[in-house]
Amino acid sequence: MNIPYHPPVKRSVEIAGHKTSISMEPLFWDMLRNAAEAEGVPINALVARIDEQRIKAPTPPGLASAIRVWLVASAAGQ
Q1: Nearest-angstrom CA–CA distance, 35 and 3
Q2: Lowest mean pLDDT among 2-6, 11-15, 41-45, 68-72
Q3: Residue 63 near residue 20 (C-beta atoms within 8 A)
Q4: 47-56 contacts: CB < 8 A, separation 24 or more?
Q5: With 80 as the cut, is the pLDDT of residue 78 above it?
Q6: What's the confidence (pLDDT) of residue 40?
Q7: Is the pLDDT at 29 greater than 80, yes or no?
Q8: What does the pLDDT average to over 42-66?
Q9: How many CB atoms lie within 10 A of CB 58?
Q10: Please, what is the angle between helix 43-55 and helix 26-39, to 10°?
């Protein structure tokens, strides 16, 4: 298996009218784009939904971590 190792890439997203930067590996950016396309929503809308769920957690992780966990859990069908 050829795993595409790559350092994180920083991109800007907008959540509730506020821009923020998120650093994730390209693999996760691709997964996020695919998930948004599959749901028929913009990436910003999907990130906002993940952020809303994240801040309700008893010990909220950082946004990039929350996105990664959400993507892996979604891929695993959880």
Answers
A1: 20
A2: 2-6
A3: yes
A4: 47/13, 47/15, 47/22, 48/15, 48/16, 51/15
A5: no
A6: 97
A7: yes
A8: 96
A9: 4
A10: 100
The string of DSSP letters for the chain reads --------EEEEEEETTEEEEEEE-HHHHHHHHHHHHHHTS-HHHHHHHHHHHHHTSSS---HHHHHHHHHHHHHTT-
Give the sign of the dihedral formed by CA 54, CA 58, CA 64, CA 70: negative
23 touches 67 (CB < 8 A) = no
- The residue type of 12 is S
